[in-house]
């Protein structure tokens, strides 16, 4: 009797069965990328906890879930969140849903599967050799292909990911390629959701190129269903004078790994990474960042806040690498955790690696419970205990959230965070 | 009316209140004076419901309600207000939002309709003006970066907005200069009336020049050892606790 295939083998078997049917399956350069990715993923496998970067996040539940690919067209359209921005690209189970989307006509923005020919040279250009990126490359069915020409104001675009009710555990691996031309700017507000009881895996990979003097404000609101999994990898490369702002809210999913890699490649590039993680009973939220200062006079700021209730676990790992060329780097990283229960657990691992000698770099971390004196002060003013706790949780998040300045993004964020504690405590 | 009978309380097994008997009839202002460590702050915390104090005996009722069995927010909703000796800073909580939330929580408890942001601002500005404070106070985070005087004024503003019927002032005069002291006293005196009682806890007689109490009690070693009229405060100031209480 043969053993059950492990998660790794199941994904590889899936790829073997589908390889010709996947987008670009008969296009040599795509097929080759996928084959290389399969080789890498086959060799590395789903990362296990013996790998340092995965010490605190155990993917065993994913290996055991026996996910299969979506690959069938969705009959039932899941409920769409209200449209907030003028344009939006909607993906259902990782595939572009044209009938639900409203795309800007003034620049290239649409389905990667439909525009794969135009993605040569972009696809895989920024991807590092990471197992989950390889898994995505191997199995992606679609994604957003966005190319904003130089000196264009792209306004605000929504990217919506929905998981449907299929009744079986599905996995989808959208690949989003985003290029912001020199001097161009865009705000991208991403929301991912799914049905509450469905076990599914959403494994998106972003390859983001921010041109010289360009700005991308990337707001990610993760509200996957409580039985869902999200493993996301963002790879951003920022040229001279460019800015990449990432704000990620992790409020859903049974397990989420939010991995952000940003490389500051030209002088005076800037990166802000802020985020909030709200995890309740049975949830695991992991944010792992890697900031690569590769050019002089760049600045990076990171503020992450994690709030944990019930039996939950939070992880923050943040590495800042300052290469020798990156003189006069200004780097700052802060991560703070608020534990609302005795059973909650946080693991925090900040890491600085500095090879330049003229550098200003600092990091800090705090872990604590709600302040009893603050709580009593609010209650002594007539505010009921749960409402008082909710106010203090909200106050704790302020510092991470205040970097989000776009009003549409602010509204989406407020909706996701306000009342979180009251819902969690209910 | 506030009625305290044989109240005993301890912290970490250490008795602090050793049998307090005190009655404050509705409409009266009473002062409690006492040296450091006599149990003044403990009394105010026990009455307002702070955790960490073990009530070992006695009772405290307010208008017939068993105060000690109520949550702090229920006490506040029932008209009890504690002006903190050390007002707590709340980074990330805007003062206007805090004050409106508190006002609406108390209104809700009383079965009154909540007020919206506009109505609140109008109300708050009226009170702020009456207290000779600056509107600027509303825009800042609660007590964050406030001077000692500003914190105490913010307490008085909260009191003015929540309109309690029993205000416990825990050493509200500490750290105040004479101008701030007058503003705080004016805030309390403005509330004085047939339906307002107050327990003014203080170390010094000075505050009582501005808030003239109906009765003065001396708290020492966890007990009220002497009670009298306003003149008792003057005697304490002149002769010291030890002699007056002897």
Number of domains of chain A: 1
Topology pattern of chain B, helix = H, strand = E: EEEHEEHEEHHHEHEHEHEEHH
Quote the beta fraction of chain A.
Answer: 35-45%
Unreliable runs of chain B? none
Percent helix of chain B = 25-40%
The CATH topology of chain B comes to Rossmann fold
> What is the CATH class of chain B?
Alpha Beta
Main beta sheet of chain B = 6 strands, mixed
Ends distance of chain A: 47 Å
Rg of chain B, nearest Å: 18 Å
- The average pLDDT value of chain A, as a whole number, equals 93
How many structural domains are formed by the residues of chain B? 1
Class inferred from helices and paired strands of chain A: alpha/beta
Number of strands of chain B: 12
β-strand number of chain A: 22
Salient structural properties:
heterodimer, A: about 425 residues, 10-stranded mixed sheet, about 20% helix, B: about 250 residues, alpha/beta, Rossmann fold, 4-stranded antiparallel sheet, 10 helices, 12 strands
Strand-helix topology:
The complex is a heterodimer of chains A (426) and B (246).
Chain A: H1 7-18, H2 28-44, H3 60-65, E1 68-69, E2 87-92, E3 95-96, E4 108-111, H4 131-139, E5 144-148, E6 153-162, E7 170-172, E8 175-180, E9 185-193, E10 200-202, E11 205-210, E12 215-223, E13 229-238, E14 243-250, E15 255-264, E16 270-279, E17 284-293, E18 299-308, E19 313-322, E20 329-339, E21 345-354, E22 359-368, H5 372-379, H6 385-401, H7 407-417, H8 420-425
Parallel strand pairs in A: 1-7, 2-6, 5-8, 6-9, 7-10, 8-11, 9-12, 10-13, 11-13, 12-14, 13-15, 14-16, 15-17, 16-18, 17-19, 18-20, 19-21, 20-22
Antiparallel strand pairs in A: 2-3, 4-5
Helix pairs in contact in A: 2-4, 5-6
Chain B: E1 2-11, E2 14-24, E3 29-33, H1 40-48, E4 54-62, E5 65-66, H2 72-77, E6 80-83, E7 90-94, H3 95-109, H4 117-130, H5 136-139, E8 141-142, H6 148-162, E9 166-170, H7 178-191, E10 197-202, H8 207-210, E11 215-220, E12 223-228, H9 231-239, H10 241-245
Parallel strand pairs in B: 3-10, 3-11, 6-9, 9-10
Antiparallel strand pairs in B: 1-2, 1-4, 4-5, 7-8, 11-12
């Amino acid at each position: 009797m043969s053993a059950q295939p492990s998660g790794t083998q199941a994904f590889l078997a899936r790829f073997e069965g589908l390889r010709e049917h996947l987008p670009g399956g008969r296009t040599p350069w795509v097929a080759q990328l996928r084959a290389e990715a399969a080789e890498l993923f086959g060799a590395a496998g789903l990362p296990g906890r013996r790998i340092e970067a995965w010490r605190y996040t155990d993917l065993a539940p994913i290996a055991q879930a026996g996910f299969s690919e979506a690959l069938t067209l969705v009959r039932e359209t899941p409920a769409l969140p209200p449209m907030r921005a003028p344009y939006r690209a909607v993906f259902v189970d990782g595939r572009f849903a044209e009938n639900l989307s409203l795309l800007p006509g003034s620049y290239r923005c649409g389905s990667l599967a439909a525009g794969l020919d135009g993605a040569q040279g972009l696809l895989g250009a920024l991807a590092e050799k990471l197992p989950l990126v390889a898994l995505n490359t191997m199995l992606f069915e679609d994604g957003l292909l966005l190319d904003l020409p130089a000196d264009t104001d792209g306004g605000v675009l929504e990217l919506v990911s929905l998981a449907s009710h299929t009744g079986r555990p599905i996995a989808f691996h959208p690949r989003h390629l985003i290029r912001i031309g020199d001097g161009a700017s865009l705000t991208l507000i991403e929301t991912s959701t799914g049905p509450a009881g469905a076990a599914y895996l959403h494994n998106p990979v972003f390859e983001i190129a921010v041109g010289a003097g360009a700005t991308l404000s990337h707001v990610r609101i993760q509200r996957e269903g409580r039985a869902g999994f999200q493993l996301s990898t963002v790879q951003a490369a920022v040229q001279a004078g460019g800015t990449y702002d990432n704000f990620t809210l992790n409020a859903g999913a049974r397990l989420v790994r939010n991995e952000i890699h940003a490389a500051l490649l030209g002088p005076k590039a800037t990166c802000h990474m802020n985020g909030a993680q709200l995890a309740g009973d049975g949830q695991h939220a992991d944010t792992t960042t890697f900031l690569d200062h590769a050019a002089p006079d760049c600045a990076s700021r990171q503020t992450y806040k994690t709030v944990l209730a019930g039996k939950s676990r939070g992880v923050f790992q943040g590495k800042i690498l300052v290469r020798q060329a990156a003189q006069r780097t200004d780097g700052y990283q802060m991560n703070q955790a608020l534990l609302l229960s005795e059973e909650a657990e946080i693991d925090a691992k900040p890491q600085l690696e500095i090879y330049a000698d003229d550098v200003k770099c600092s990091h800090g971390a705090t872990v604590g419970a709600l302040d009893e004196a603050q709580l009593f002060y609010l209650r002594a003013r007539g505010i009921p205990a749960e409402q008082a706790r909710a106010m203090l949780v909200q106050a704790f998040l302020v510092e991470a959230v205040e970097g989000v300045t776009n009003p549409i993004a602010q509204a989406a964020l407020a909706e996701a965070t306000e009342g979180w504690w009251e819902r969690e405590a209910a | 009316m506030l009625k305290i009978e044989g109240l005993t309380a301890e912290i970490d097994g250490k008795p602090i209140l050793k049998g307090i008997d005190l009655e404050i009839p509705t409409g009266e202002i009473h002062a409690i004076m006492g040296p450091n460590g006599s149990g003044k702050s403990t009394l105010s915390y026990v009455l307002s419901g702070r955790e960490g104090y073990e009530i070992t005996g006695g009772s405290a009722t307010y208008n017939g309600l068993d105060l000690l069995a109520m949550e702090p927010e229920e006490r506040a909703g029932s008209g009890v207000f504690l002006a903190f000796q050390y007002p707590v800073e709340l980074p990330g909580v805007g003062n206007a939002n805090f004050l409106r939330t508190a006002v609406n929580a108390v209104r809700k408890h009383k079965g009154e309709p909540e007020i919206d942001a506009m109505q609140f601002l109008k109300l708050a500005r009226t009170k702020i003006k009456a207290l000779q404070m600056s509107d600027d106070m509303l825009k800042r985070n609660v007590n964050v970066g406030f001077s000692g005087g500003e914190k105490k004024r913010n307490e008085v503003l909260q009191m003015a907005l929540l309109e309690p019927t029993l205000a416990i002032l825990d050493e509200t005069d500490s750290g105040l200069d004479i101008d701030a002291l007058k503003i705080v006293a004016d805030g309390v005196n403005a509330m004085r009336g047939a339906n307002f009682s107050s327990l003014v806890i203080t170390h010094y007689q000075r505050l009582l020049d501005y808030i003239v109490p109906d009765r003065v009690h001396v708290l020492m070693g966890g007990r009220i050892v002497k009670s009298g009229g306003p003149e008792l405060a003057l005697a304490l100031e002149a002769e010291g606790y030890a002699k007056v209480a002897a």
